[in-house]
Amino acid sequence: DIVMTQTPLSSPVTLGQPASISCRSSQSLVHGNGNTYLSWLQQRPGQPPRLLIYKISNRFSGVPDRFSGSGAGTDFTLKISRVEAEDVGVYYCLQATHFPWTFGQGTKVEIK
Amino acid sequence: QVQLVESGGGVVQFGRSLRLSCAASGFTFSSYGLHWVRQAPGKGLEWVAVISFDGSEKYYAGSVKGRFTISRDNSKNTLYLQMNSLRAEDTAVYYCARGGSPYMDVWGKGTTVTVSS
Lengths: 112, 117
Prior knowledge:
The complex is a heterodimer of chains A (112) and B (117).
Chain A: E1 4-7, E2 10-13, E3 19-25, E4 38-43, E5 50-54, E6 58-59, E7 67-72, E8 75-80, E9 89-95, E10 102-103, E11 107-111
Parallel strand pairs in A: 2-11
Antiparallel strand pairs in A: 1-3, 3-8, 4-5, 4-9, 5-6, 7-8, 9-10, 9-11
Chain B: E1 3-7, E2 10-13, E3 18-25, E4 34-39, E5 45-51, E6 58-60, E7 68-73, E8 78-83, E9 92-99, E10 104-107, E11 111-116
Parallel strand pairs in B: 2-11
Antiparallel strand pairs in B: 1-3, 3-8, 4-5, 4-9, 5-6, 7-8, 9-10, 9-11
């Protein structure tokens, strides 16, 4: 199985400041069709997960543009340009290139 | 609106069986693959299984393969997860999610399964 490793596991951030989460996969996530199926999800406290980003850098419908994704191959990053109070929660990367799909351990974003 | 509602969770004894359901509404159910994802108490997300739009393809996590079966009834807009030989480590909130291309774009609120000895 592909192992997804996120860093940091916890990220205390000042409101209005940027935050960055890294996700590294144990194998390349480039599919045979040339696409890379890496997505990011947010889970606010007490809520189900919510899709933020798919295929590395595509924001899902309704996701604010302060969220952006980048990367290639085995190294990926989620950035929040200016953290707002509603961004508190746990963020997960997910690889969907290879079965079984696998999540990162999660990164908790909290306000300092 | 697009909605997924899980049901069927509860407390079950070690080694017994349970069937979860996920009722869908607000979209063309038979056009989408569907997933089960679980989250143990205080832990991260674990992908469990996926079924294709027509039920012809199914994939499972190694931790549940041979014990869990995913299925769907497109006439009832309902997804199922049959869980047999339950273990303590199967205790979790179980979410169903709609499959995109490929990602999971719509999630239910989850149903809680507790496996007790």
